Amino acid sequence: MARAPGGLSGKQKAAILLIALGTENSAKVLKYLGEDDIEQLTLEIASLKKIPYEAREKVMDEFHALCTAQEYIDQGGIDYAREILDKALGTQKAVDILHRLTTTLQVRPFDLIRKTDPSQLLNFIQGESPQTVALIMAYLNPQQASVILQSLSPERQADVARRIATMDRTSPEILREVEKVLERKLSSLMTQDYAAAGGVDTVVGVLNYVDRSTEKSIIETLEVQDPELAEEIKKKMFVFEDIILLDDRSIQRVLRDVDLSKDLPLALKVASDDVKNKIFKNISKRAVDNLQENMDYLGPVRLRSVEEAQQKIVNIIRKLEEEGEIVVARGGGDELVV
Hints:
It is a single chain. By secondary structure, the chain is mainly alpha-helical. Strands 1-2 form a two-stranded antiparallel sheet. The protein has helices spanning 10-21, 23-30, 35-47, 53-89, 91-104, 118-125, 130-138, 142-151, 154-166, 172-181, 200-207, 212-225, 227-235, 248-255, 263-267, 273-281, 285-298, 303-322; strands at 169-170, 195-196.
């Protein structure tokens, strides 16, 4: 016999929601979950023989309320969401929804800061210590953080990048203090759990958006200061010279999205013979002749222009990898097997 709607566990609610969404939409959701979660939800779905109408409606209403509340938070922050929900649902319901969001969905600190223009934010935090700047950047999205990182002095760039990469968990007390300095008002709703941020993946995400010279400078400095960390970061990154690691099919797919008459000749201007040969191997002889002709026609060019062209191609490669259209081998654990 099914439990009453009010007595459903979190797993049961998730299973009911997936059933209500249908197979196609549920499959899209499951792609973002870990194997353990997928296994538990699959077992839960299999055990739900019959779902009372009122139970399904309650779960869908709750899900809609949480999504709406999150949307309000994204638009104007916690205070704005509380005000809107209070008017629409009443004080108690609003408090309940926001409590669930902040404790289970983990509203991250510096919510309003992420809506601030990076150049304005830079002026606001540039006088702070490298550790404080690193903490703030760890909670920003990569695009914002990259603008700030490449605007810092070369010495501070590597220092801040290292601090982000080696950051583990930050106590809520420290987060509250930093937020207070930044005139934030989230401390009353923060949980007492430790908030995870930073790490190698975070700094890689930031470096993926900075210009090539900034990325190179930071990596070279870290290679001296912390060779193991530098190697770990490089294994998770893809730079232009790594094109030689792509298989022929991937090269051909990448070249379909590259400007062959402008960006590719410029990018190959100072590339190694190995990179050039990898490209030449995957285009027609006529295309090779045209490419070499364009490279000769360029004459002397600014190094920054070459790096920008290379970065455009790297961004295409990273995008295709994220979309699953190509596979990029990294380190020793990504070999393909058939």
